Amino acid sequence: MIERITIETPEQGLFEITDRIDALVEDADLDEGLCTLFLQHTSASLLIQENAASAARRDLEDFFMDLVPEDNSLYTHTAEGPDDMPAHIKAALTQTSLQIPITDGELALGTWQGIFLFEHRWDGRRRNLVVHLGK
Fold first, then answer.
1. Of all helices (H) and strands (E), which one includes residue 34?
2. pTM: predicted TM-score of the whole model, two decimal places
3. Which of helix, strand or coil describes residue 134?
4. Can you tell me the distance from the alpha carbon of 52 to that of 50, in angstroms, rounded to the nearest whole number?
5. Is 4 within 8 Å of 39 (Cβ atoms)?
6. Superfamily, domain 2-134
7. Mean pLDDT in runs of 10 for the chain (135 residues)?
8. N- to C-terminal Cα separation, the chain
9. How far apart are CA 51 and CA 110, in angstroms?
């Protein structure tokens, strides 16, 4: 089963999408299988990260801001603004696809794990995610 979902991001940062993926897994009625997520963009990414403490998300966002500065003097690809090339670098350092086992009809995530879309651009975007659920 393949589903396509759109995720609206208001700004740069981590946005949890676990509930949306859980709902698709429930609708698929699979006892066991695999959930593959693929984000169709080069300036955003997907992460499995702690979903209990918001401080963990803030620290991760701050770390990436320090790791990949938004300084146009460092880049030649700046056509869409100072966050353009840094967004591509952040996406290259993370991932645009995830695979999560399905066991007993649920995503096999750990206790504090959630699925996040990591938006690397400052302005809100409409992001397309392809979800494949199967055996």
1. strand 33-39
2. 0.94
3. strand
4. 6
5. no
6. YjbQ-like (2.60.120.460)
7. 96 97 95 97 97 94 95 88 94 97 97 97 94 94
8. 10
9. 10
